[in-house]
Design a protein that fits this description.
The chain is mainly α and 302 residues long. It has a domain of 203 residues. Helix content is 74%, strand content 2%. The protein contains eleven helices and two strands, in the order ααααββααααααα. A two-stranded antiparallel ribbon has the order 1-2. Strand 1 and strand 2 form a beta hairpin. Helix 1 packs antiparallel against helix 10, helix 3 runs antiparallel to helix 4 and helix 10 crosses helix 11. It starts with a helix and ends in a 10-residue tail after the last helix. The model has no long low-confidence stretch (mean pLDDT 88).
Length: 302
C-alpha cells in the first residue's frame, strides 16, 4: 500500500487535533457541547484572509514568501490578529447568548442555542463572502521526499511543527499559569472551585478566548492545505467531536491523539473505500468510542 496516506493523515490529524483541543476545553469547563465551534474555525480563516489582504495592500501589493513556504509574514501577522478577534467573538457570543442561558441551568437549551448560533454565523459568512472558495495563496509547491515513499510540502511540514509548538505552549500554560490552574479546577468541580475563591466567570471568559484562538489556528491550517469556504468548519465539526471524545473530554493530549487517529483513519479510508465514504469514518469512530470506552483514552469516570 502507498504510505502517502500516512503523511496526509498526520497533517489532517494535526489540524483536527488542534480544533479538538478547543472543543474539549469548552466541554469540560462550560459543560455543554458547543456546535458553534466549527464556525469559529471558518470565521478565523476568513478574518485571517481579510487581514492578510489588508496588510498586503498596505505594502503596495508585494508580500513575498518565507523561504520555501507558499505564504509570507503578512499571513503570520494576520493569523495572530484574527485569533484575538475570533476570541473576542466567542466571548461576545457567550455574553449575549450563552451566559443568560447558563444562568438558567438548562444544558439542552444551550446546545440547541449553539446550533442556532452556528447557522447564523455560517450564513453571515456566506452572505458576506458568497459560497465561492477562497485561497490564502496561489503558489504551487513541490512535495519533498521524507522517506518510505512519503512526500510532504514545506507548508505541511511547517504546519505540523506549528501544531506541536502550540500544543506544548498550551500544556505549559495549563500546568504553570494561575489561569491554567484555575481552568483545571473549574473543570474538575465548578462549585468547589468557586468556594475556594476561583473567579469562575473569568475562567469561562478565558476558555472562550482560548477556544476561539485555537479554532482560528485550525481554520488557517485547513485554508492553507485545502481551501476556505463558509462550510469548512461545519464539515470539520464531526471529526472534532470524534477526536475530543475518543481522546477523553478534558484531556488536551487526548484531543491531539484522537485527532491523529481520526485523521489517519480518514486518510486510510480514502485509500481503501474511496473519498465518498471519508465522512463516515469520524462517525464510526465516535460511535465506537461511546460504546467501548465512553470516557475516552485519557478520560476518567466522574
Amino acid at each position: 500500500m502507498n504510505l502517502q496516506f500516512f503523511a496526509d493523515g498526520i497533517v489532517m490529524g494535526a489540524l483536527i487535533g488542534l480544533g479538538a483541543v478547543g472543543v474539549t476545553l469548552s466541554y469540560s469547563i462550560l459543560r455543554f457541547a458547543n456546535f458553534a465551534h466549527g464556525e469559529f474555525i471558518a470565521w478565523g480563516a476568513y478574518a485571517t484572509l481579510v487581514l492578510m489582504s489588508a496588510i498586503i495592500m498596505a505594502l503596495g501589493g508585494e508580500a513575498g514568501t518565507l523561504g520555501a513556504l507558499s505564504f509570507g509574514w503578512p499571513l503570520l501577522v494576520a493569523v495572530v490578529l484574527a485569533a484575538v478577534l475570533v476570541g473576542g467573538l466567542a466571548v461576545g457570543l457567550d455574553r449575549v447568548l450563552f451566559a443568560r442561558l447558563r444562568a438558567k441551568g438548562n444544558v439542552i437549551v444551550m446546545v440547541m442555542a449553539s446550533f442556532g448560533a452556528s447557522m447564523a454565523l455560517r450564513s453571515s459568512l456566506e452572505f458576506i463572502f458568497t459560497s465561492s472558495p477562497r485561497y490564502f495563496t496561489r503558489e504551487i509547491q513541490m512535495a519533498l521526499p521524507v522517506g518510505f515513499g512519503i512526500r510532504l510540502t514545506p507548508d505541511q511540514i511547517f504546519l505540523v511543527g506549528l501544531t506541536a509548538m502550540i500544543v506544548i505552549a498550551m500544556d505549559r500554560f495549563l500546568a504553570l499559569s494561575a489561569t491554567g490552574r484555575a481552568m483545571r479546577a473549574v473543570s474538575e468541580n465548578p462549585a468547589l472551585a468557586r468556594v475556594a475563591g476561583v473567579d469562575v466567570e473569568r475562567v469561562i471568559g478565558a476558555t472562550w478566548i482560548i477556544a476561539g484562538m485555537l479554532a482560528t489556528a485550525s481554520g488557517v491550517m485547513l485554508g492553507i492545505t485545502v481551501q476556505i469556504r463558509p462550510y469548512m468548519g461545519f464539515d470539520l465539526l464531526l471529526p472534532l467531536f470524534a477526536a475530543a471524545i475518543l481522546g477523553g473530554i478534558g484531556s488536551m493530549q487526548g484531543a491531539i491523539l484522537g485527532g491523529m487517529i481520526v485523521g489517519l483513519s480518514e486518510a486510510a479510508a480514502v485509500q481503501v473505500v474511496g473519498a465518498n465514504y471519508r465522512a463516515a469514518v469520524a462517525f464510526i469512530i465516535l460511535i465506537a468510542a461511546l460504546l467501548v470506552k465512553p470516557t475516552g483514552i485519557f478520560g476518567v469516570r466522574e
